[in-house]
Each structure stands twice: as structure tokens, then as C-alpha cells.
Amino acid sequence: MLNSEKLTIAGQLAAGIAHEVRNPLTAIKGFLQLMERKMEDQTYFGIIESEIDRIELILSELLVLAKPQDFKFESVYLPALIEDIKTLIDTQAIMNNVKIEVVNTDEPITINGDINQLKQVFINFLKNAIEAMPNGGSCIIEMKAIGENKVKIFFKDTGDGIPPQLLKRIGEPFFTTKENGTGLGIMISKQIIENHHGTVHFWSDKKGTIIEVILPLQ
Ligand code: ADP
Ligand code: MG
């Protein structure tokens, strides 16, 4: 509990800082573009711009960690939300030869949550799955009610998997194995699910990765 408290505070701090840094950064970026037009020597502009883009990417990930009191909790019909996410990410999946399949028992699975935050979580998981399958594959999203008051959502991919020695580091801030990764997606997703009183677990081997999310039903 103490750890999750610490993470919440760190998360809020990170989101607050991200918010404050974004405005001056936008100004710097704008003036840089003005300068670029006037300068004959363009040598370093490309590097500066790509570094600014990188800062913006990290800020945009951190901004998702809004204050819990900013969340808008409402009734969320999960099968519809998952369908929305699938539509959103399908183009990227198809381009990477990845088939996303939704397995849905016909149970009326409704939870209490913030739609945008939950979407963010599922997009993060699906993006990671696609990125773990450079030669294509499949990702199955399965949801079912367990008992009277919980829902279990599985994300199963046929990707490269996470080596056992790295599995325990998943969710550490800035832990990434990707050249252009931020290592913030899983940390943020775990935090959001915890804010929804849920849990996240990972299993992985060379055949792929399974993510299990458990959330309380409404
Ligand atoms: P990023 O995607 O920017 O690297 P994440 O927090 O989303 O950051 O993920 C952290 C790391 O966890 C990834 O770099 C990758 O090594 C590993 N990972 C996450 N999801 C998967 C997955 N489905 N299959 C294999 N590895 C994964
Ligand atoms: Mg990611």
C-alpha cells in the first residue's frame, strides 16, 4: 500500500511538472523554427528538433497521470470500449500483419471508470503487443466476468515475449528495451488500473505475453 501511495504521489508530481514544462517548450520550439528559416547553416536544427520531439513524447505520456480527482468516473460498458479501441488501432495492426481478435462472452460487463484513462491503458497494451510482433502475429482480447463482482480481461499476444530476468522490471519508470521507447506505458497503465481498484499481472515466455487485468464490476 505504501508503495502504491508513493507511486500515486510521484505520478501526480510527474503530471504536474509535465504540464508546467509543456508551455515553455512550445515557445522554444516555435522560436527555433523561426530561427531555422533565417539561418544559413542548418547543421544542428534537425538534432535539436528531434530531441524536442522526444521531450514532447515523454511529456504527453506523463500528462496522462492526471490527478485522481480530475477523473470522471461513469458507467462504462466494456465490450463497446474494447471495440472502439480495436477500431482505433486496427490500421496500425494490419500494417504490421497483426490480427486483433476480441473474444467476448455475452455477459453485460459494465464497470465504473474513466473512459479516456481506460482507453489509454488498453491502447498502451495493444501498442506494446504490436511492437513485440515485428513479423506479425495475433493478439486476443478476452473478457469474462468472474464471480459476482469482478471482470477479467486478458491480452494475449504471440510476440517475442519478455525474458524472465527483465519481467520483474516491467512497470519501472523509464524501463524500456526499445530504441525509441519511453518506458512509461506500463507504469502509467498499472497506475490507472490501480486507481480503478484493479490489478495487472504479466506472464511471458518466448511464445508470447499475457496481460491479465482484473477490475471490479459496477
Ligand atoms: P515502451 O513501450 O516505451 O518501451 P512500456 O512501459 O510500454 O514502454 O513497456 C516497457 C517494456 O516492456 C518494453 O520496452 C518491452 O520490453 C516490454 N513489454 C511490454 N509489453 C510487452 C509485450 N506485449 N511483449 C513483449 N514485451 C513487452
Ligand atoms: Mg509501450
Task: Summarize it.
Helices cover 49% and strands 22% of the residues. It contains 6 helices and 7 strands, in the order H-H-E-H-E-E-H-E-E-H-H-E-E.
Write the layout of secondary structure elements.
Blueprint: H1 2-38, H2 45-63, E1 74-77, H3 78-95, E2 98-104, E3 110-113, H4 115-131, E4 137-146, E5 150-157, H5 164-167, H6 185-195, E6 199-205, E7 208-216
Parallel strand pairs: 2-4
Antiparallel strand pairs: 1-3, 4-5, 5-7, 6-7
Bound molecules: adenosine-5'-diphosphate and magnesium ion (MG).
Describe the structure.
- The protein is an alpha+beta fold.
- It folds into two domains: 3-66, Helix Hairpins; 74-216, Histidine kinase-like ATPase, C-terminal domain (Heat Shock Protein 90).
- The chain has six helices and seven strands, in the order H-H-E-H-E-E-H-E-E-H-H-E-E.
- The strands form two sheets. The protein has a five-stranded mixed beta sheet with strand order 2-4-5-7-6, covered by helices on one side.
- Helix 4 packs antiparallel against helix 6 (185-195).
- The longest helix has 37 residues, at 2-38.
- The protein is globular and about 65 Å long.
- The protein starts with a helix and ends with a strand.
- 25% of the residues are buried.
- The mean pLDDT is 91.
